[in-house]
# Entry
Amino acid sequence: MKAKYRLILIIAGASLAPVLVFAVCAEVAGSGYLYALSIAIAAALLPAFFAARSVTGGLLLPMANMTSGMKCFIKADYRLDSALPKEGWPEAGSLISALNRVMLELSAYRAFHLNQLVDERTKAQALIETITDGILLTDDRGRLIYSNQIALKLLGIPKQEANITLPGSVQQKEFSSAISGIMASQEDYLKGEVTVPCQGEDCSIDKNFRITSRQFFLATLKRPGRVICIRDVTVEKEIESARETFFHMITHDMRAPLTSIRGYAQLMQKHVPPSPRTGKCLQNILYSSTRLNGMIEDILTTMKLESGEMALRPAVIDAGELCARVFEVHEPLAERKEIKFSVLPPPEKIAFSADDVLIERVITNLVGNSLKFTRPGGTVGLSCREASGEVVFSVEDTGPGIPKEKQKEVFEKYAQMQEHKYMGFGLGLAMCRMAVELHKGRIWVESEEGKGSKFSFAIPIG
# Structure
């Protein structure tokens, strides 16, 4: 019999029993209603007692045991030590069986994920301890959540303890100010460098470290924490210094012979009897020397921009005339490569203040790159316009395009696509970025791989 029908019968029986007993007693006792009522009440206690006992044992007690068992299951961190015994009415027994199954599956599921979590944590810890970079995780108050041994050693912290805070626990003074700046900042991404002076007899050079930091969120943190990476870039700095020395040498040693080559080639164009073969050879000599001279100019300009030695010589520039001048210089090269080169002048005159030589060098580099990488039959377009108080120059081509993940890297020094490794030094776009930023401007690229690129930069007019 189902529980709801059993409950109805028990309640009905317990309710009707006093009425029936009272009616019988009243008939027997005649006018002694008080006596009959007393007997009826006494007689009703017995079925009420059995009714209450039946409900308690069949339903209420199993429910109380299930509640207690579930509380113990949760308190035991979701581990099921023993199943709840089946008791009470059949419906209560079925409910207990279902609850046992749920608790058993929850226990197995949690055990599986705990093992998986421990396994993944062990892998991550082994990886972090193996790498040569120092890694630290802190909460929003600077308290250390995790650190590998390399980071602790670099910061002068003896060992990882519960009360370590940054920058208070940092013993290495060279890192202390850098860590203080990172922890005080609200920026999502930070980058800086620290130089640790050479110490000890075996030490011959100063150590250079690059510190990068990014915010991260944890469910247990109300505010974002930070991950800090400390990388030893001493060797990279040495290589870069050697490369800069090499560039200084070649720029000074190559300019004189390059000037002679260009001068004699121009002289031969004037005095050697013209012929198709001679003219083509002299054009190639002049083009190659011009390209090499451009590389040298990029190197010198980049070094000046990096060292802060580049002093701007602002003048009022007509943007349309500047584009026309660059177009006139590059049109012959576009014709030889069978590339359709066009210029779109602004509808009205745009005058702005900037270093004429430097801005022309930026546009020249962008146009030269587009002509270099665009195949015969393709197009290259140069344009300028005014927008929101800025003059915007754009060079658009139908070249190979740039993958999305590489579009920010192309403006860094020595950054080149793998297939273009032998087509220059990788300084042109880096020089463009530094020159534009020196004018308080910005530069960017829009590109789709296989469909071309559009390089643009904007300079404030005022």
Summary: The chain is about 55% helix and 20% strand. The chain has four domains: 3-108, 131-232, 238-307, 314-460. The mean pLDDT is 79. Residues 33-75 form the longest helix (43 residues).
